[in-house]
Amino acid sequence: MKTDIEIAQGIALQPIANIAAALGIPAPALIPYGHYKAKVQYTEIDEAKVAQSKLILVTAITPTKAGIGKTTVGVALAQGLQQLGKKAIVALREPSLGPCFGMKGGACGGGYAQVVPMEDINLHFTGDFHAITSANNMIAALLDNYQYQHRGTELALKQITWRRVLDVNDRSLRFIVSGLNGPGNGIPQETGFDITPASEIMAIFCLASSLDDLRRRIDNILLGYTHHNQPFTVADLGVGGAITVLLKDALNPNLVQTLEAGPAFIHGGPFANIAHGCNSIMATKMAMTYGDYVITEAGFGADLGAEKFLNIKCRQAGIYPKASVLVATSQALKLHGNVTLADIKKPNLKGLQAGLKNLERHLENLQHFGQSVVVTFNQYSFDTAEEMDYTAQWCREKGADFALNNGFAEGGRGALPLAEKVVEVIEKRPSQPIRHTYALEDSIPEKIHKVVTQIYRGKEVVFSKTAETALKKIETLGLAHLPVCIAKTQYSFSDDAAHIGVASDFTLNIENVIINRGAGFIVAVAGEIMRMPGLPKDPQALHIDVVDGKVVGLS
Amino acid sequence: MKTDIEIAQGIALQPIANIAAALGIPAPALIPYGHYKAKVQYTEIDEAKVAQSKLILVTAITPTKAGIGKTTVGVALAQGLQQLGKKAIVALREPSLGPCFGMKGGACGGGYAQVVPMEDINLHFTGDFHAITSANNMIAALLDNYQYQHRGTELALKQITWRRVLDVNDRSLRFIVSGLNGPGNGIPQETGFDITPASEIMAIFCLASSLDDLRRRIDNILLGYTHHNQPFTVADLGVGGAITVLLKDALNPNLVQTLEAGPAFIHGGPFANIAHGCNSIMATKMAMTYGDYVITEAGFGADLGAEKFLNIKCRQAGIYPKASVLVATSQALKLHGNVTLADIKKPNLKGLQAGLKNLERHLENLQHFGQSVVVTFNQYSFDTAEEMDYTAQWCREKGADFALNNGFAEGGRGALPLAEKVVEVIEKRPSQPIRHTYALEDSIPEKIHKVVTQIYRGKEVVFSKTAETALKKIETLGLAHLPVCIAKTQYSFSDDAAHIGVASDFTLNIENVIINRGAGFIVAVAGEIMRMPGLPKDPQALHIDVVDGKVVGLS
């Protein structure tokens, strides 16, 4: 069996100019980055065409630590739709360097369903993450300089809430004291670094609708509080223009291709807990401008990813998916059916049946949003016909469609049944406009309560004292109209990662509430959420190399 | 008077593919980054052509805080040579984002002698600095992870010498304590960040002769010492391959153009104190492959820049300049003639005459290296004919050529006298092969002593206890054969920045000696050398913006 990178390197790529020309992208709007990557000027987005395009959300049941394979399914579905003669484009998130060199690996799909050139996409790509890192840290340096230049005066801030970021897994940087070694070297301060996908700049970048909107959001970022407890923003610091300049090129979506030479837009990559977990609105709308079918994904399981996609991203962008694909794996189902981790790759119909309750709840949630759902398997070689048949039958009984998908092993051909089913569903019984879980007019605690009770199915929300204080501040600042982004473990409906299957009637503890005024949402943090991962004992970096001019060890 | 950025934006650029085609660069070797920037595969370097090309070094007298304008002169000279019908290419360093958003500004030249697109070059360009930052910090994360995974065992290191970098002016990061907040978040440690141009990766990048050589140098980087005082390198950490992968694309030199549509290679940008201060060897050799005349520069005054260029870079690369251009300004000469800073823009022949001693010493030093020298003025509107005539006459008496240069105001046309003179010198009396200041076989203290006495004209070198210890370690490690890179203030021949003009018979104090085993040189630090600048009260970031889609405020 070939590795992902061997498969990717074994296929001759089309020049990106050809991919763009086939879509009808005007040549002057195409900004090449090498021969196989390009940016497309965001001004090419055409809202009239966006309104005509059929958006498809790929989401998943509660994942295992290895993930479910949404990206693989999304790419396979795009390849399958193209094999059916449809103008289909996939829109995905950009990978982060941290996990690539750590444990999780890249984010280009797998097997015969990948976006390429996968080495480039998984490494520096077109520099978007670097631009975001620079912008984030330039704000930090300018802010600390402001403090330094105004030290001892009333202009100095009382509290700084802005942190720095790096796109690397570096646990040593989570908590630091900066500004040491005496006067002249800044002001001592407890602070730290998050990973770049956790930067508010990343969230802003992915929600911005234009360069002006990007600027407005950057100016709005809350950096801390003055001596008189007033909010202090990037606009107050006076550097919104400079930070926008650092992001202006990155803002244009990136065009690459699938292994079957279909178009793919890969742009932005925010975390799916602390942020909303979807590629940029610009990439989605650019894909919708040029594609009749646009496949996109949202991070983690549907409780986190789809909820935020529908309540935050789609609400803001004024779009909604005509169908949702809910991805399951036999392994995850068995895990939720209490099969031990060591045994989840073995045939076990009973274990799988017991785990269907997790799938059922995600299905109900999506249907409650108004989504027409097609359940699919991200197939593995050890899946049995019995298991798949049972799941298919079970889905039909629940009013959902089911289609097989063997895209990893077979590429688009393996996803043809899924592609056909999705086309049929969109034609015959497309989703309804989104029934949002909460109204923007609801108070922040109400919004959180509605997500917790209706989506997670907990019975109550308890706010810590810190969170209560923050909630009051939000009222004072007049920001209660913002949507909420709940940062919770991806492994359970509850805030307890060990509680797999379907947690119910639990209490969700909100430890902290963070104001992302630039991004335009309020983050409610349930439990300990890692914003800077660490490296494992055997990091992938030990296996990455250049051999005969080719990169090895990326996955 | 138009600003630099207004001039740059007012000129229609040639597609970079045209610039490359005119040079004879094969199309498949050209990797576009947008329409006006490209990388050229380093494998196109042809040593036979390099040997035929005429290299010209642009260096300077001891600068003022505003600099001397070597880049402006270098670009103007290239433009002038092109107007003479010569195939001339300029090879320069890449700017750092820190100073661009701080005080010093960009590094693309000025007036009508600039490389363009200056906004792109001054911002993210083709991502080289970001790749270097990533590589540096990935090593730091992997190293701290090694310490963390082996904590409490004999495998844990006793001392870590590697620091992190960011391409930003951020004084608060100079001295930090990382790994705080208890077990699970790394091991508490005193450390800090330098600016990216001060990274050893940057020096390595600029001295590497191939991808394999890059890999070898990265593997050689000394990161710290084991429990048994043995050196611990990137090879010991096992991540040389992964770090090389992060740099492999960046390694290809960047092609852009001058304001007069001539070719320019801009690649790498190491500090000129803590490192050797020149663009990459690859860029110089790429320019020499395609150009009959190649103009390059070395950071700060000739005591720092030219010395390192000749003793480190040229020695390693096996090249030498056929002529050196020594740049002076009337302002700097007057400053060295003890005219007060406030008055250096006013006509003052006597002040200028008194400052010629600084020019004289740099001239002598260059001639001692075997260089044929053309002295030039980076002309300003307030320079008087009397001042320039006097300097010209003075130069002739010292056996050096002199030519006027008004490239800032007039572009290549203003540099025609200089270009003609340089061509004449190279034809009639080219430089001799380099007479190096020291032999590689000399001990490290001998090498330092020779530079200090012969170039700086001090009388002795005193090593601190820390430096003495490091010198012993160098002997033990068998690294005494490496060249030395002295990190000293750029404002004086001595280690005292206030001592302008010509310091003599001083004692130079070496506070510390740093082993850059990957770069392949030993850094001797004289006095306090800033490796992470701070921001001023009124940082340039406050004036940078996007207005009607155009960047303003970069210089």
From TrEMBL, chains A, B:
Residues reported in the UniProt entry to bind ATP: T64, K65, A66, G67, I68, G69, K70, T71
Matches recorded under Pfam families: FTHFS
Domain of life: Bacteria
Gene Ontology MF terms in the entry: ATP binding; formate-tetrahydrofolate ligase activity
EC number(s) reported in the record: 6.3.4.3
Keyword Transcription regulation attached: no
Record keywords: ATP-binding, Ligase, Nucleotide-binding, One-carbon metabolism
Record pathway: One-carbon metabolism; tetrahydrofolate interconversion
GO terms (BP aspect): tetrahydrofolate interconversion
Catalysed conversion reaction: (6S)-5,6,7,8-tetrahydrofolate + formate + ATP = (6R)-10-formyltetrahydrofolate + ADP + phosphate
Family note: Belongs to the formate--tetrahydrofolate ligase family.
Name of the featured protein: Formate--tetrahydrofolate ligase
Gene field: fhs
